[in-house]
């Protein structure tokens, strides 16, 4: 779960965890912003007067934290990402407006066929490989041409051997292909509705700058 930033461990003493709200003296739930996108499960808080804290990841996915630390989280952070359903549901019993974003790579797919594959949250309370848990079953169920969803080092006549890999590692996907856009649209909608019992607030699409990096093939200029 540690892509981009290490898992943020909440290393707070119990006494400190009972400190004042953030912003100081302003109790939660915070005042909603005057202008809101339509269809949000939770309103976005106003930032006209305060700097608010959104936490990248929280430690209790991999280690136990105290009740006092959890109380600190829901009174000092407006939301987070990369958490399981049981976690976000618990936070929302303490702060119903606590926000959570569904995490996904902007252009990528984690595959078990990668060297040293990276896992991620692939279900409400599941940590696994997206290719195995979600993409392959979707391709099979919808009779899609799987290889069309990937970026390749040539525009035609490509095979799986021509795929482009990002060093993280993950496969770089062709975001213009109907196969990938259909999968992403359907899957992100499902994840947003099911990863949190009362729905997720939105999405976090990571590593959008990967196109600026040198691909492992060394032929990034020919990527389709």
Structure overview:
The protein has 224 residues and is an alpha/beta fold. The chain has one domain. Helices cover 24% and strands 13% of the residues. It is built from 5 helices and 8 strands, in the order H-H-E-H-E-E-E-E-H-E-E-H-E. It has helices at residues 14-17, 67-76, 85-94, 130-141, 178-194, and strands at residues 79-81, 99-105, 108-109, 120-123, 126-128, 165-166, 170-172, 202-206. The strands form 3 sheets. A 3-stranded parallel β-sheet has the order 1-2-8, covered by helices on one side. The longest helix has 17 residues, at 178-194.
> What is the molecular shape?
elongated
Please write the string of helix (H) and strand (E) elements.
HHEHEEEEHEEHE
Low-confidence blocks of residues: 1-19, 212-224
* Mean of pLDDT: 82
- State the distance separating the first and last CA atoms: 29 Å
The residue fraction in helices comes out at 10-25%
Number of helices: 5
- Give the biggest beta sheet: 3 strands, parallel
**Total number of β-strand segments?**
8
Class based on secondary structure composition and strand pairing: alpha/beta
Structural domain count: 1
Largest beta sheet: strand ordering: 1-2-8
Quote the beta fraction. 5-15%
Radius of gyration from CA coordinates: 20 Å
Q: In brief, what are we looking at here?
A:
With about 220 residues, the chain is α/β, with parallel strands linked by helices. The protein is about 25% helix and about 15% strand. A hairpin with a 3-residue loop joins strand 6 and strand 7 (about 170).
């Amino acid at each position: 779960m540690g892509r981009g930033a290490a898992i943020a461990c909440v290393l707070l003493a119990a006494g400190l965890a009972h400190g004042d709200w953030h912003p100081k003296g302003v109790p939660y739930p915070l005042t909603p912003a005057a202008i809101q996108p339509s269809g949000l499960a939770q309103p976005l808080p106003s930032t006209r007067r305060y700097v608010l804290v959104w936490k990248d990841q929280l430690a209790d996915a991999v280690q136990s934290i105290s009740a006092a630390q959890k109380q600190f989280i829901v009174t000092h952070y407006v939301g987070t990402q990369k958490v399981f359903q049981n976690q976000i549901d618990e936070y929302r019993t303490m702060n119903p407006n606590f926000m959570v974003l569904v995490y996904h790579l902007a252009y990528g797919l984690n595959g078990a066929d990668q060297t040293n594959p990276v896992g991620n949250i692939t279900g409400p309370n599941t940590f696994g490989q997206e290719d195995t848990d979600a993409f392959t079953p979707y391709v099979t169920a919808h009779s899609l041409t799987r290889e069309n969803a990937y970026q390749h080092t040539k525009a035609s006549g490509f095979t799986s051997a021509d795929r482009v890999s990002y060093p993280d590692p993950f496969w770089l996907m062709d975001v213009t292909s109907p196969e990938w856009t259909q999968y992403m649209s359907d899957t992100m909608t499902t994840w947003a509705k099911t990863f949190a019992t009362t729905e997720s607030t939105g999405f976090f699409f990571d590593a959008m700058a990967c196109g600026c990096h040198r691909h492992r093939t060394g032929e990034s200029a020919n990527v389709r």
